[in-house]
Design goal:
The chain has one domain. It is built from nine helices and two strands. The protein has helices spanning about 15-25, 35-45, 55-65, 75-80, 95-105, 110-115, 120-135, 140-150, 150-155, and strands spanning about 30, 90. The protein has a two-stranded parallel sheet. α3 (about 55-65) crosses α8. The longest helix has 17 residues, at about 120-135. It is globular, with a radius of gyration of 18 Å.
Length: about 160
Amino acid sequence: YPWRHTSKTQLREFNLTEIEAMLGSYTKVLFVRDPFQRLISTFMQGMGSSPSFSSFVQDVLDSGQHNADVAWEPLVKLCRPCLVQYDYVVMFGFLRQELGHLLRRTGLPVDSLLPEFTDTQVRWTYSWLSEQMFSELSLQQKKQLSHFYRWDLDAFPFSSSFLSD
């Protein structure tokens, strides 16, 4: 459907027949990240105007599911994994391993295309940072965040997420 496709075209602008045809012709890859780490990343990038992580989280919770910014909106709402049959789901923190597998499956040369990832360092850093940021939150905020991201936590294996408890 190149005649209707521009860089700004969204899937919802097509009818169901066109959507099914397009999705059937693409290799669909979904990159997922622990929702709490997404919140931390958004806060650290200064995308919220809050002075503290706790107040930023409160702003997110106050915005609710219907007014959530794409930076922290639940993945299940953004990517519809129950409706779209993704060919690959790639977890942040395992990028080198999973992208290598994906490139091999598509027949592309792995070594020349993969940048150097330091997955172990990234996981350790986010684990430490998550612990620090999580300790800033009230029990009420922790419960509300777990509820806010409940579908993501059910849909994806974020076993080490602070929100899983």
